[in-house]
Automatic annotation (TrEMBL):
Protein name: Flp/Fap pilin component
Pfam families reported for this sequence: Flp_Fap
Keywords tagged on the record: Membrane, Transmembrane, Transmembrane helix
Entry's transmembrane regions: 20-41
Organism of origin: Pseudogulbenkiania ferrooxidans 2002
Length: 64
């Protein structure tokens, strides 16, 4: 555990280490935003296509 602590301490004290941690946090945040957007969009698209399919089926059924 002390080895991990010394590695983290050296990363926090080193400017390059801090920069890499900032990039990792930024990348994680971007990934979370993309994932939540895709999941939300997927749900909305499923509902949209179901609605379109229902309307097409009703239109075809009414025309026959």
């Amino acid at each position: 555990m002390s080895k991990l602590k010394s590695i983290l301490t050296s990363l926090f004290n080193d400017d390059e280490g801090v920069t890499s941690i900032e990039y990792a946090l930024l990348g994680s945040l971007i990934a979370v935003v993309i994932l939540s957007s895709v999941l939300g969009l997927g749900t909305n698209l499923t509902a949209l296509f179901a609605n379109v399919a229902t309307q097409i089926a009703d239109a075809i059924g009414g025309a026959l």
